[in-house]
Write a structure and sequence with these properties.
By secondary structure, the chain is of the alpha+beta class. The chain contains three helices and twelve strands; from the N terminus they run ββββββαααββββββ.
Length: about 190
Amino acid sequence: MNLPHLEMRQTAAKIGMNITRPTLEQAQRPATLSIEQPKGDLSIETVAARLEIDSSQAWIEMGKIPAFESVQRYAEYGQQMGRQGTGRIAAEGDQMMRIEQGGSVVARIAKSRDTPPAEVTTLGFSPRSLDRVKINYTPAEVQIHYTAEKPRIEVQVNRPELNVTEGTVEIYLREQNQLDMWPVGGIFDGEG
């Protein structure tokens, strides 16, 4: 028996997608760092060492007089010898002016200038002992003061720079849906 029936063929719709992936760009600048180290404060104070030597007792034992008195005596002696020398030179000049009167003036002047006999010295120890010289020593003092300065550090953090491009999804109909039907079997006239 051949009963009429309908046959159908269905094609489902198909979609397609165009996908653009998102992009992420990241840049990180290094931090800005500033370091400044001020100089420390250093001060040095020095008190000089002091050495005192008192040898006046030893000089007295040797028959020497103190320096100030010695300078005065030698100044007076120098002035006296200067006057004597000036007088002697003037006298010699007067003698030389009268050289035409005869006599051996030059020989007499030379003989008067003859060197005197050398002084006789004796050997002895002076000072007689070391306790005659007094020594006092004060050592030097050095004071050092230092004040340290802390470093100045400044840090500026730079945030990361992000550049994001959003992704896109485009959906389209790739294939249209379709339904086909046709009669099969029996008599079909098409008019119903």
